[in-house]
Amino acid sequence: MTAIKRMFVLLCGYEILPMTVSLRGADPRFxxxxxxxxxxxxTSEGWVLFDAGLDxxxxxxxxxxxxxFSPGAWFPPPxxxxxxxxxxxxxxxxxxFEDISVLILSHLHADHSGHIKRMREARIVIQKVEYDYAxxxxxxxxxxxxxxxxxxxxxxxxxxxTPIMPGIEAIFTPGHTPGHQSLVLxxxxxxxxxxxxxxxxxxxxxxxxxxPGSASDDDxxxxxxxxxxxxxxxxxxxxxxxxDPVLVQKIKLAPDFYE
Length: 259
Ligand SMILES: [Zn+2]
Fold this sequence. Notes:
Structural class: alpha/beta
Bound molecules: zinc ion
Number of domains: 1
Strand order of the largest sheet: 1-2-3-4-5-6
Mean pLDDT: 97
Largest sheet: 6 strands, mixed
């Protein structure tokens, strides 16, 4: 039994990055633009969102731009066009942020945490290790506290693999960040689906077991890649990657959907 009826893939912008950020050991001269995806699930228990995109406020507010996106920091800044705005994509499906009842976060990097602030009523599911790291005093790159260090959020902190509802399981896949998680889904027609999030940006991270350039722990990162690969082999699941610039052009994007 699965609670999922439909899955929508939201394309929420692009990041302009050296290829080495995604693929360890790539030629340092290569610069690519990679998509930022999020996933919306229409379930019998309400609307579920996996990841919250990047808030374009950080790209337009002068204080935010100088804090996060000046040369020497994260530069050049990402691109969020009006067609990438999450709110507009939800509207095209007929809902708004207020309709999201569960928000599951793979991790709290800024390209995944953007619109948390607009879902104050939602249950926000995150791994304990990620939550603790994000709220720690350790110096961090790509964590924007304006997105998540907010009063009144309805956090649900989980620890390790956790079923969220029938057909949705969170699996603990650390390595890109200390408390990263992915999702394994059961769709009524498509069957098993793995939403890898940032375990690997490109499909080559999986097919060739290439470490991401950006990893909090290399051993954990490669173990998570192998875990996803094993799961894919066992189940024949279809994998959806958050940041693969080629795959994103071959899948159905919202308002189209998978059943
Ligand atoms: Zn990311």
